[in-house]
Amino acid sequence: MGSFIFCRRLWRWNPERAEPFENEEQRPCSCWSPEMTPSTKMALIEQGDTAAPENCQRLVILGSSKVGKTSLVSRFLNNKFDDGYTPTIEDFHRKIYRIKGEAYRLDILDTSGNHPFPAMRRLSIITGDLFLLVYSIDNRESFEEVERLCQQIQECKTQCRTQTGERRRKFGIPIVVVGNKCDREKSRVIDPSEALHLTEVYENCQFIEASAKKNINIEESFTRIFDLGNLPLEMSPSLHRKVHPFYVSGSSSPTGRRGMSIRRKMSDACGTIAPNVRRPSIRTDLMVAQMRTKTSAISKADVKDKCVIQ
Ligand SMILES: Nc1nc2c(ncn2[C@@H]2O[C@H](COP(=O)(O)OP(=O)(O)O)[C@@H](O)[C@H]2O)c(=O)[nH]1
Ligand SMILES: [Mg+2]
């Protein structure tokens, strides 16, 4: 038997190079197989390719433009904040972790905010596993956009067949609503109770106020989404060591960790930002969407309600 398994995650599959498959269900995914268990001898960046499907998650950041989505991501990845504004078209980041001996891959899709193509937003929702919905506390329109997004995510996901990871399915879609720019208290137009009321309606949905500028609750926002998504909290910036992409676990380090016990080494979480990572092509995303929206035992009545990419 070859080392391929059939799985729903297609990020690693390169449609440009592969032969077409007659049936989508038969498309092999090279991202993981039981024979590809991560080895501590591998560089961390390579371990991302061996991560089990349930350890590969896509976090999608949605919300109106200028609410601070990119700033939140920048704080999370590099602890940096830029006062200037550069419009985002769509940014893609990848962070690879090794936590308690297991490899994890977190993909972050930082969206533009103004979606001229509704189908693209729908695609971001279908291919996303975890969501940060951002509004600015001094802008009511941006809050109303988050209300719409909450609803759209629920509608879209309930029509989708597969939420990656059985465990997540029973709790609902992990969403954290972030009221950003809480440093602008004087210009506040959204009371926290409004946002709280919104999140209480949905399962597995939480609310937090934050400020990317003052670095208030940024880590907590991400910790909460990891918690809701049943991911290790060590993925949060302060709970793992930042290492070089080519770091090999257990190798000697300047901090002299050589003499650590095996137990300590296993829990020694580390993470790295994957350099020069390319966003999976729209075609790949469309295939993922197709897999997620296709129902195996779909009833005729369901067909017309099926989640469709227009
Ligand atoms: N006062 C304040 N400004 C912020 C905060 N976060 C972002 N900004 C600013 O808001 C503008 C838009 O931020 P950006 O992250 O690009 O928003 P995006 O369009 O949602 O990605 C930029 O000028 C940021 O410097 C914050 O927490 N407080
Ligand atoms: Mg942006």
TrEMBL record:
Compartments where found: Cell membrane
Principal place of residence: membrane
Gene3D superfamilies reported for this sequence: P-loop containing nucleotide triphosphate hydrolases (3.40.50.300)
Keywords on record: Cell membrane, GTP-binding, Lipoprotein, Membrane, Methylation, Nucleotide-binding, Prenylation
InterPro entries recorded: P-loop_NTPase, Small_GTP-bd, Small_GTPase, Small_GTPase_RasD
Membrane topology: Lipid-anchor
MF terms (GO), sorted A to Z: G-protein beta-subunit binding; GTP binding; GTPase activity
One cellular-component annotation, GO: plasma membrane
GO terms, biological process: signal transduction
PROSITE patterns according to UniProt: RAB, RAS, RHO
Family to which this protein belongs: Belongs to the small GTPase superfamily. RasD family.
NCBIfam families the record matches: small_GTP
This protein's name: GTP-binding protein Rhes
